[in-house]
Each structure stands twice: as C-alpha cells, then as structure tokens.
Amino acid sequence: MAENVASGRRCYYYKAVIRAQERKGQSKMMPRKRLHCFGSSCQLTVSATPGEAARLFDLALTELSRIEAKFSVYDAGSVISRVNQAAGTGSSTELDSEARSLFDFVAALWKESNHLFDPTTRLLQDCYDDNGRLKATEQQIKAMVSLVGWNKLQLDSDGAYLPEKGMLIDLNSCIRPYALDTVRKRLVKEGVEHALLELDHDAVTIGKQADGANWLLGLRHPHGRRTAINRVKLNNRGFAMRGDFERRITFDGESFGRGLSPVDGFPVPGMLSVSVIADTCLNACSAASIARLKTEQAAVNWLDRLGLPWMAIDRQLKCHGPLAPK
C-alpha cells in the first residue's frame, strides 16, 4: 500500500508517516484536519465517519484553544503572562488545581535536572540572534542571569509570584505535550480507538491505525537529504523532541544547542537534540528536556538507564540511541 508522509516545517527532523487512508470496501475512513494553536500547525487524524470526525475535530480544537488561552506565554491573558506581568509588584497570581499541577510538574523537572531545566531562562534567549550568534555583552548577560532562577518563584496558598521585576517564565515546552495528552484522554473518553495528534515537535497516538497498520514516525539524519532514514512505531504512545540540530548556537567557534545555562547564560555543551518515546507525550517531554541539558556522555548514560526508546544528535552531528539508524 502506498504511504503518504505528512509535511512539516523545515526544522522538523521527524514526520508522521500515515498510510493511505482509503481502501476499497473499507467502512471507516481516517479523516485528517489541520488546526492552528500555540503558533504552530497541529494535525489530527482520527478513525470516524465524516460527520463524527467533524465533531471530534471541534472537541480537540476547543480543548487545545482552552489550554493555549490559559497557559501560553504568548497570550496576554494567560496564567503565565499574568505571573510575568506581576513580577516585582508584590501581587500573586491565583492558581487553580490544573495550574498548580503543572507548576508542580515543572518543579519536579527542575529538581531532576539538577536545576538546569529552568523556565526562567526564557529571558536569556534575547542574548542571541535568530542565527544563534551572541549579541549581548558579558555585562548584559550577567544582568539577565541575576533575574534567572526557578527557585526564586514563590508558590503558596495565594498563588504564584516572581519577586523581581523583569523576571519571566515560559512553560510552553511543557504545555504543548500536556495539551496533546489532554486531548488524547478526551478522545478516548469519546470512544475513539484510532487517532494521531501532532503539534510542533510532539505527537501522541491512540491504538493503531484503523486497518491494523502501525502509526510510524520517520526520523531524519542531520546529514544528507531531508528524508526519513529510520521509521519507528508509535502505537498508543507519546513522542517528544527537544532541541533542534538545524538551529544551532555558534559560540567560540563551536556548535551548541539552544539550551542555555541558568548559571552563566551560555549554551550547555550537551546534545543538539533528543527524541524520546514514552507512555505519554508529557513523559517523553520530561526525558528529552532533561537529557538535552546534560553533557553528551551523561545524557547517553541517563537515557540508557531510563530504558525508553530514544535518539540523540551530538554536537558533531552523530546519532546515538536505540532509535538511531543502524
């Protein structure tokens, strides 16, 4: 049967591979719809009749839009934006149970990563231009680093509060996989047995495809043509990639990923990108996020101990891990 590789942005190095959906005599089709949320294209493929699929698409978009409006740093009215706007004012932003659970999740990542996973480093990204070149002076970097530190965030019964004016937090890298997992739960509750949902560098599936075929991801090698060189199964699981080998930072003549150290504001000498498959998209995100902030060998050792399928690309553009091409 012919296969159709879903298109994606240039920075992707994986693409979902979806088998041709229409087969003679097949009672159910696999309608697909592109949605737009979190500033990215989101694609949902679901096994349902056209009328039922339209209802499920609306349900998914409603839930994604709710989470985006509530938590995206790019939405001025979101919880995260209100926390940022109130930095240094002495005013806390109220958190409901959903928001608190997400803050607790991020705090756990911060602790597990030895404090390198730090959403307050969003401020440091302004030190580098779009091509990854340093544009800030050493004095400017030091000034920005003084405003960095997840441990400075105050969480109490009143809510969340950043004590210093100019501090920022950005939880989008965690919110996106959370949104996919949330939609996945809603679709399962609606009786969906076969679905694929993709958003930016994250993906999650329900079961297999309706005809029994596997959901596949195509992993692309950093050298050579922009084509998939290894395909991996993603049945009833979540996928996350963190980092991007195509958008590197050049510093002192060396290539680095865009993960910045909360200690000095400079790039972490770790993997350029890490991809992980886990039971949920959020768990895959956790593993990939922590691994890319470790030194290269430490990341390999840590990922091996986790026992999850993974692939990492180092600073010399070499691939590592069980999902790497043989």
UniProtKB/TrEMBL annotation:
Q: Does the keyword Transferase apply?
A: yes
Keywords (alphabetical) are: FAD, Flavoprotein, Magnesium, Metal-binding, Transferase
Q: Is Signal a UniProt keyword of this protein?
A: no
| Enzyme class, broadest EC rank | transferase
Catalytic activity reads:
L-threonyl-[protein] + FAD = FMN-L-threonyl-[protein] + AMP + H(+)
Q: Which cofactor does it need?
A: Mg(2+)
| Pfam families cross-referenced by the UniProt entry | ApbE (PF02424)
| Gene Ontology molecular function | metal ion binding; transferase activity
InterPro entries linked = ApbE, ApbE-like_sf
The record's EC number reads 2.7.1.180
Similarity section: Belongs to the ApbE family.
Q: What is this protein called?
A: FAD:protein FMN transferase
